[in-house]
Amino acid sequence: MAKDLPDAGKPPATLAGIEKAIHECRRCPIGFLENQAVMGEGLKKSALMVVGEQPGEQEDLAGKPFVGPSGQLLDRYLVEAGIDRRQVYVTNAVKHFKFVWRGKRRLHQSPTGKEIDICRFWLDGELAIVQPKIVLALGGSAARGVLGKSVTISKTRGHPLPQEHGPEVWVTAHPSYLLRLKDEMKEQQERLFRADLAAVAERLGELAE
Ligand code: SF4
């Protein structure tokens, strides 16, 4: 973690400790909005960690990750790929919901690269505890949070990205992207997403042998 970030140090060594700390975290401006931090969820040791961008409106209200439409879509594809969500640790690159008010509605805003980099402190903490064999990053923000750099999804999906240390990293689209598409483009991207999850499932099987 970069030394110039506020309170640089080590994240707590337990998931409960990280959860408590993110609720108090104000390292970046997102934590000052009217929201609550949303901690990752799943087994303390999971072979697969799935990382999204940030909590959405529904996740923020529920205080749980991936409970909104994107999460429901993800669940469907995980089932199709033969991956049991109860065996997966799901979390986000950014722990607070970033939004702007439009009347009475809170509209999603993408986190900046800097905000993702700052929040990576907590993701690193979760990774150190959960010790997954594979991390699957959903979308560009998640990929930046996991890899510490920006990548192009179309060029990096479908195969593990070489890492010097730690788990294999795979990258695919965010389910919210699929929800926004229509017609042929939707079908094409759904096929690619399905294929990515199937490849991850196969690799998980290989790593378990
Ligand atoms: S988004 Fe992350 S870094 Fe920013 S305040 Fe929330 S927990 Fe802290």
Descriptive report:
By secondary structure, this protein is α/β, with parallel strands linked by helices. The chain has one domain (15-208): 3-Layer(aba) Sandwich (Uracil-DNA Glycosylase, subunit E), CATH 3.40.470. It contains eight helices and six strands; from the N terminus they run αβααβββαβααβαα. It has helices at residues 15-24, 57-62, 69-80, 113-130, 139-147, 153-156, 175-180, 183-208, and strands at 48-52, 88-92, 99-102, 105-108, 134-138, 168-172. A four-stranded parallel beta sheet has the order 2-1-5-6, with helices on both faces. The protein has a two-stranded antiparallel sheet with strand order 3-4. The longest helix has 26 residues, at 183-208. The radius of gyration is 16 Å and the shape is globular. Mean pLDDT is 94; it is low at 1-6. The protein binds iron/sulfur cluster. Residues 22, 25-28, 30-31, 37, 94-96, 118-119, 122 line the site of iron/sulfur cluster.
Briefly summarize what is shown.
Helix content is 44%, strand content 13%.
Q: What proportion of the residues form beta strands (DSSP E)?
A: 5-15%
Known CATH architecture: 3-Layer(aba) Sandwich
Terminal Cα span: 33 Å
What CATH calls the topology is Uracil-DNA Glycosylase, subunit E
The string of secondary-structure elements, in order, is HEHHEEEHEHHEHH
Helix share, percent: 40-55%
User: Bound compounds, please?
Assistant: iron/sulfur cluster
Provide the CATH top-level class: Alpha Beta
| Low-confidence regions | 1-6
CATH superfamily: Uracil-DNA glycosylase-like domain
